[in-house]
């Protein structure tokens, strides 16, 4: 694994990832695999799930074919129309345009930037926005533009959110990552970013929502602490969960030691969630996520 | 490990476990170790903890000595008096007299009875009390008396709780284990059993308190489910936590599959907590537990 | 989960599990899913894998259909013939006829028998064979016939192996489980049971093969100990691995304490492997296993 | 946790860590705690272990005292002399002077440098030596001097080892970390660095020693892959183990995917081992380590 993005080969234009969601029913796999055969494709990875909760069918395929996108889309068109499918076709490994929001904590941002450069995380990060300038040099080392604006009142907060929305538009952002960004997003911004913003919360949700979860965890005397990556919704810490991890602690740890211990779980939980999202492995089934690992 | 309790040797009368709790201050270790030396003892295991939260000092020692209990107690007497210690001296490995409360679920009861007989859990279970007769044969196979009384209304519930209290007295019970006993204890009984009753809750507390935690976990879409062994208090599912474990699940699991998957965590979390308690490794520090593993 | 096998409903005759193995190539999924559609079936679970190592394609499907086995087989016949598939069709949840071999250790046998009765493990165990009589009562409690024959020399060992083979024939055994059976099987028996005998080895293979793995683990000072469930082959402890688990230990544990700690991992690793095998989730790809969890 | 080493306060000169090793016998704890009392000290953390394998006694204490080092040493002097103790007294939190050896892989080096700067790892790294220049910029960003010398033959290898030894002397190095340094050290260098050089091996030892462990792991079909941090000895991959971790993988992972997956375990296993060593929590008991976590 060379530590240099320039050495990472561009993703192959003949390896595709297809995700689709529709009402469950018979014949879907046969119809889709027929379209793949018609486009001269070979299925290299396939996962499916039928949800008893919502009656919906979810599928993720990786398809190798020398035919181009147009041929593949043409073959799929009648099938997706017939089943009324919500679908998405992309090149396997294409870096996802990702905006990172940060405050002062470095660990999650460092983990994302390092992995992007090492070729371990299929994202392209054109910008880091922060309400503090703490991480400017870190972003700079990784060659990522960085902008900091203090958020001190309603006005500066609104301006910051406007900057986020402009950045999303300018850079055609596909994913916004709150990498320990310590501001609550307005309901309007949550709505605007619905389904494409991921937050890391420093507890094992639904335990210890809100502020100071490690202090809460210490007070309650839990024996495991955790981290949760979830979609951002206007209902704080209630968005669909993508990934969770825990680590064992004992009585001897102070609340501030829990903070240090928990950082590793936060970083790896967040980058795992981002990786799955960037690989089109995360689908929404109501308030729950389907993860095609 | 022979599967026969009769082969388990009686615990040695010259290996002692000493636990003590007092206000923290200088010189405690020196004073205690001096008493041990005076009694001709050798410290084979030692753990200590000073709580910043409550200012208390906790210690657990294992001491080998050919001197009897009287000599050891005499040596310790001035020290525990001087520091105003709450202390307890017992023989290492002495089986703890344990009352098991059960309903219909077999897994936790089976695990406790099997481990008792295999010599893996230092408890002596003179009686299983249940509000159902489902587990009568299982208890019978392990040679443990079993009594079942239906609990259907306030009167039968009060009678059952009276039976519990009588059993505690008759058998000089040191620990009551709620092994998936599906009744809420009355506040009076909780008070009577304070600090010597352990429950297993089938979620990772503080998440999903109360009824149907697996159904709640499914609805919330968590990626790990868990189990929590905790002391029983009148505040439901809020007692001090002794042990917790989690296991990974994914979107494909129904709520009833979570029930089956979670059983293993429930059993091993409960038996682990009981083992630590029986070995005098669990001390209370306010709402938190000290576990000297 | 009621603790009574009699309450377990018989598996539905309209829910099928289909596994197939063939040389990889295009169109397989389409062809198979076409056969399923033709038989009026709905795919409820599907997993596939193409092995780069051996060029083979592996698939496991669960299919719901009101059509009977004959209709389903007729629809599949041309497809499996065309692709030269190695295939297997069974009813989802049908208990696998399983022979258990034991010695004196109780934990794995207890775990299997308990889970069978609790409806957690889809096996039917018509017989336990042992070279010691230690576990006779345990088997008896679970209503499972038990036979013990001392194995003390080459002659008694050969006789025991003949008894195994006869039992396999008499009971149409589909799986032989070595539940801490402390005898090495002869090469002839290994060959006769190839692909349908599972052993639990009490180490994290390939570390610590052969005798006394916990003693070896203690001497080497490893920080995690483990257990490995694997297919039996004539090459001792070298058969394809089905499942592995580890548990953390520290310097303070003696070799005999490691034995006690490791038992839980042995039990759960073995029963997990047996469960997957009984559910047709374990396929062989050369020296490696495909596990469709 | 501010991302800036300059903000980390210097360690307090009144909080000490004392480790000691001697032949086991009665009265040691009393004697040591007496010396602590004499120096006006308070024991804030204490762990001990008596090894049945070697008959040695190990202890680690943290002691708070306003008395200086001289007073504390004077109080301890008669005790350590009496028991013939191998002992070490240091300031809690003092950064350990650490030399890092690297090749081209960035993940372990990045993790160490990031944690040093974030105040999460009590080391001072005055120099990174590498046989490749790949990581020059990374070291530069963290303000750590970096030297690269190609190692292509016996002569250049000997020169590189001479540079290591000179650096150890110049910087009074206390720990040498092989952070995926892909050269085998000569027996002479191993001897020179005995007990103060830590390597990370990318397998769960003792499985898969030597080259290409992930390729070996893939071929064997293990279900967990791991990493092992161990002391360097002239017997390759056989030095005393300090820490190990594993992560679950399945059949679908190629050998090169195992490489990527394993990196996280390598980094966290190595930094954990270094942290414990820097905090004087790692003691040697023959071929095994005592870890006072």
UniProtKB/TrEMBL annotation, chains A, B, C, D:
Protein keywords: Hydrolase, One-carbon metabolism, Purine biosynthesis
SUPFAM superfamilies membership: ACT-like, Formyltransferase
Catalytic reaction equation(s): (6R)-10-formyltetrahydrofolate + H2O = (6S)-5,6,7,8-tetrahydrofolate + formate + H(+)
Enzyme class: hydrolase
InterPro entries: ACT-like_dom_sf, ACT_dom, Formyl_transf_N, Formyl_transf_N_sf, PurU, PurU_ACT
GO biological process: 'de novo' IMP biosynthetic process; one-carbon metabolic process
Residue ranges of domain ACT in the record: 17-94
PANTHER family: FORMYLTETRAHYDROFOLATE DEFORMYLASE, FORMYLTETRAHYDROFOLATE DEFORMYLASE 2, MITOCHONDRIAL
Similarity field: Belongs to the PurU family.
UniProt protein name: Formyltetrahydrofolate deformylase
């Amino acid at each position: 694994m060379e530590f240099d993005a320039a050495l990472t080969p561009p993703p192959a234009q003949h390896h595709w990832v297809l995700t689709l969601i529709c009402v469950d029913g018979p014949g879907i796999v046969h119809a889709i695999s027929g379209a793949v055969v018609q486009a001269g494709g070979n299925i290299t990875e396939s996962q499916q799930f039928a949800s008893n909760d919502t009656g919906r069918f979810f599928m993720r395929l990786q398809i190798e074919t020398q035919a181009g996108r147009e041929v593949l889309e043409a073959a799929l068109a009648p099938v997706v129309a017939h089943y009324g499918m919500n679908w998405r076709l992309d090149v396997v490994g294409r870096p996802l345009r990702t905006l990172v929001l940060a405050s002062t904590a470095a660990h999650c941002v460092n983990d994302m930037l390092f992995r992007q450069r090492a070729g371990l995380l299929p994202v392209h990060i054109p910008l880091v926005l922060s309400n503090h300038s703490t991480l400017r040099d870190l972003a700079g080392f990784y060659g990522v533009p960085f902008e900091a604006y203090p958020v001190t009142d309603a006005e500066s907060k609104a301006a910051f959110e406007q900057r986020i929305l402009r950045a999303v538009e300018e850079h055609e952002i596909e994913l916004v990552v709150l990498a320990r960004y310590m501001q609550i997003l307005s309901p309007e911004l949550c709505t605007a970013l619905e389904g494409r913003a991921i937050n890391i919360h420093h507890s094992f949700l639904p335990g210890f929502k809100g502020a100071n979860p490690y202090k809460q965890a210490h007070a309650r005397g839990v024996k495991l602490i955790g981290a949760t990556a979830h979609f951002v919704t206007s209902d704080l810490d209630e968005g669909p969960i993508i990934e969770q991890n825990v680590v064992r602690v004992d009585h001897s740890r102070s609340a501030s030691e829990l903070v240090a211990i928990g950082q590793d779980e936060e970083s790896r939980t967040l980058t795992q969630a981002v990786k799955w999202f960037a690989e089109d492995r995360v689908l929404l089934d109501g308030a729950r996520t389907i993860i095609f690992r």
